[in-house]
Amino acid sequence: MRLPVRAPGRRSLIIMLVGVLLLGAFGAWVLFASNWLRVERVRVTGAEVLTPHEVVAAAHAPMNAPLASVDTEALARRLRDRLPRIKTVDVERSWPNTIGLNVTERMPELLMRAGGKFAEVDAEGVRFATVEAAPKGVPLLEMNVSDSPSLHQFGTDRLRRSAVEVTQDLPTALRKGLRKVRVRSYDAITLELAGGRTVAWGSREQGAEKAKVLAALVKAARDARHFDVSVPSAPAVSGS
């Protein structure tokens, strides 16, 4: 036998509806009006060069505000604008009262002289910070393009990015010995390696092929001082 299923009566429905409304109102009060879930602490992870204090100060998180009301996207934008060293930042609500900032910093691939200081350039060719002392092992970048048509055609940012792309194409062993990158135009990039050796690289095109040819030349001509791989199908070596 099947027992008859009775639909809840009108009074029961009203009671249920009132209960739902009261529960929702209580939840909203807890999230936005109570003192239970408010911002009391900002936690920073991932910072290496920047200090947690610098990150917290730049974030300017709304302390004592309801944690649920924090605009995480606006906070992330503010951090990137105020601290260009920050490449990405994940802003998280950590209940009941903490904002978490997980920072990824830009790392220098090249350095540019800026007065008596050094401007750091990252893997995307972005100048993001100026430091007093040159970080160890980071090559210098010299841009001598003021009279080059390439400056008008490509712009400084694209030429700087080309220089970074060339360094990234180098085999690891040669990259460790890279001391300087000179850019005179888009198709006239020169590298200076340890021991006074120089490399005429040309443009950043065919980078993988040029790197392969250069590695073979350096291995075969250990006493050579100058290598030309600007046309990788017809490389040249000179000096001893």
Task: Walk me through the structure.
The protein is of the alpha/beta class. It folds into two domains: 38-105, Roll (Ubiquitin-like (UB roll)), CATH 3.10.20.310; 108-238, Cell division protein FtsQ/DivIB (Rossmann fold), CATH 3.40.50. It contains six helices and twelve strands. It has helices at residues 10-33, 52-59, 72-82, 149-169, 172-176, 207-220; strands spanning 41-45, 86-94, 98-105, 110-114, 117-121, 127-131, 140-143, 178-185, 188-193, 198-202, 226-228, 236-238. The strands form three sheets. It has a six-stranded mixed β-sheet with strand order 7-8-9-10-11-12. It has a three-stranded mixed β-sheet with strand order 1-3-2. The chain has a three-stranded antiparallel β-sheet with strand order 4-5-6, with no helix packed on it. Strand 10 (198-202), helix 6 and strand 11 form a beta-alpha-beta unit. The longest helix is centred in the first third of the chain and has 24 residues, at 10-33. It is elongated and about 100 Å long.
